[in-house]
Amino acid sequence: MCGIVGYIGKRKAYPILIKGLHRLEYRGYDSAGVALINEDGQLNVYKAKGKVAELEAFCAEKDTRGNIGIAHTRWATHGEPNTVNAHPHYSESERLAIIHNGIIENYAVLKAGLQQEGYTFKSETDTEVLVQLIEYTQLNRHVDLKTAVQLALQQVIGAYAIAVLDKDHPDTLIAARKGSPLVVGIGEGEYFLASDATPIVEYTDQVIYIEDEEIVYISMNPNSPPFREGQGVGSLDITTINNVAKTPEIKRLELSLSQLEKGGYPHFMLKEIFEQPRTLTDSMRGRVNVRQDNIALSGFIDNKERFLNAKRIIITACGTSWHAGLIAMYAIEEFAQIPVEVEYSSEFRYRKPVINKDDVVIAISQSGETADTLAAIQLAKSKGAFIFSICNVVGASIPRVSDSGCYTHVGPEIGVASTKAFTAQVVALTMLALCIGREKGTLSEEHYLNIVRELGQIPDKIERVLGQNKRIADFAKTFTYAQNFIYLGRGYNFPVAMEGALKLKEISYIHAEGYPAAEMKHGPIALISQEMPVVVVAPHCGTYEKVVSNIQEIKARKGRVIAIVTEGDKLVSKIADYVIEVPETEECLTPLLTVIPLQLLAYHIAVVKGCDVDQPRNLAKSVTVE
Ligand code: AGP
Predict the structure, then answer these.
(1) Could you give the C-alpha distances from 315 to 309, 312, 391, 402, 584, in angstroms and in order?
(2) How far is CA 18 from CA 5, 37, 70, 79, 340, in A?
(3) pLDDT, tens digit (0-9, with 9 covering 90-100), for 384-405
């Protein structure tokens, strides 16, 4: 997600801002920019696509004077990653500049209103709409900037952490937040703003965490009352967006820089596992409307006929994304009754597949850069198929080649082992299957409504599963000796078994295989021994009774079973050696809950083994080579 940094005080702002952007690089981004007001009262904005280093190179010969400025790393949500869409954004008059982390959901309505007032826009971003709205409000309501920011934010629906500069007031810095984090650092005669404390911690340990719908006003005007005795020049005030004064609450920073980048978690992977309730909420926002019992997926709505007329859907992906595709096969065939093939991209691209013009090809890729998946859809496109991609990186190669798609919007996934992207892919694919099925009439309205309502419950239900983290960490210790694992599941949870096995393999280096539970009798049961733990995904749905029989067959041969069951399970919990319970839900949504304990089990085993969880040996986050 985006990162924001701001500075006002006694020092040159530029080096502090650039260093702050480097501190925020771990958040993932695709462009960067900085705005400065210099001693001549000029407001200079510099932006560059790509890394912060490219912004620095661009600024090398520029006027970077000034002791007030704001800077931004952009994780694209609206509009391609390029210099036009990069922040900061000027207002129409170029008197104001803004940076923003978040998503303004009603930006299109606000933009249309400003266009009617004659405003024009250079970028595709929601952020530019906000700075124009602030300027429009100030000019038309004849109010100061502080009030204009309040009035503008009262009209905004969505999430924001913003910072605003006004070249006519070079001694003032205004910032606000709702839904996206914002921290203020209090120095001696200087103030810092940032998305989190990492850009601040080296200058001060005195911080104020801004709360939702609060605005902070910092002024270095010598006539302003000092913020604190002995603080030196500079005042700081906080109000709500409705102008209710708030008392700033100063806290002392305890965390180290490294811990701060991980949000206090020991590894990015654990942070991302625990982010899933929020990231799935973000991923469904504006798409799953439980109150209206409806799913609105623009990529489907704009291409309805292609899906309704599809004779076949081919899903192509790699690794974890392929597992998400396998789950989608069950959902699409059950709800939309369209034949689905799930292909490993590396095989699909070379095996001379039969591809027809009325085929729909769905590419799934977190990075949007996996070479085999990109090549697979280029092949399918050359044969006239319709390409729909589900990616997490806006503007990546795969979405750019696709005819349409759906972004998962879970923010950058830093851990090499994919977790939050996987659950978001499953949600996106389930939403697509539901939309097609409802439109085709192959999915009953009652079943559709039950699943939509249940989708709204999933983030809270994942939260409940995450509550078992400590227990899973404890019993994970007993399995670090194992050389091999088998993971079993049936139906929607067969791909979950494969995903759980992959998680363990890639971060703990323990060999593991995922199988359909019934396949045990066709060979793998010969492997059963006390030394090889068997993980069985056995929620109370589908062919549950068959899975119970499979567990009994394993126990009869002295196998040790770790079972993932539905809360209140009476049968499996009596025969398995270890049981992890997940809340009940619709069968097609069980993977969103049953995968969580498997993510945590793999993580804790790897940690006990001392493995490099975030950057496992031999692996890359994005396999951009064949
Ligand atoms: C998943 O934990 C792995 N890191 C890997 O299998 C990954 O899913 C695969 O490389 C596909 O990546 P993509 O989703 O970015 O295309």
Answers:
(1) 16, 10, 13, 13, 28
(2) 9, 15, 10, 24, 49
(3) 999 999 999 877 889 989 999 9
Smallest CA-to-CA distance from 198 within 135, 262, 136 is with 262
Q: Which residues contact 261 (CB under 8 A, 6 or more apart)?
A: 23, 26, 198
Place of tokens 């009603």: 106
Q: Which helix (H) or strand (E) holds 408?
A: none
CA distance 272 to 596: 11
How many angstroms separate the CA atoms of 130 and 63, rounded?
Answer: 27
Per-residue HEC secondary structure of 503-567 comes to HHHHHHCCEEEEEEHHHHHHCHHHHCCCCCEEEEEECCCCCHHHHHHHHHHHHHCCCEEEEEEEC
Alpha carbon of 422 to ligand 1 centroid (Å): 9
Instruction: Give the N- to C-terminal CA distance of the chain in Å, as an integer.
Output: 28
Q: What is the pLDDT of residues 493-552, one digit of tens each?
A: 999 999 999 999 999 999 999 999 999 989 999 999 999 999 999 999 989 999 999 999
Which ligand 1 atom sits nearest the alpha carbon of residue 506? 2
Catalytic residues: 2, 621
250 contacts 186 by C-beta, under 8 angstroms: yes
CA of 621 to the centre of ligand 1 (A): 7
| Bond prior to 339 in cis (omega within 30° of 0) | no
Minimum CA distance residue for ligand 1 atom 5: 319
373 CA: nearest ligand 1 atom = 16
**Contact criterion met (CB below 8 Å) for 616 and 417:** yes
Give the whole-angstrom CA distance, residue 46 versus residue 426.
39
pTM of the model: 0.79
Instruction: Return left, alpha or beta for 558; rule: phi > 0 is left, psi -120 to 50 is alpha, else beta.
Output: left
Task: Please name the residue whose Cα sits nearest to atom 9 of ligand 1.
Answer: 319
CB atoms within 10 A of CB 533: 24
Per-residue tokens: 363: 């590419």
Distance CA 249, CA 184 (A): 11
Task: Say if strands 294-295 and 578-582 run parallel, antiparallel, or are unpaired.
Answer: unpaired
CA dihedral for 114, 116, 122, 125, sign (positive or negative): positive
Q: Tell me, using a 6 A CB cutoff, whether residue 8 lines ligand 1.
A: no
Instruction: Tell me if 209 sits within 8 A of 233, measured CB to CB.
Output: no
Q: Which ligand 1 atom is the nearest neighbour of the CA of 421? A: 14
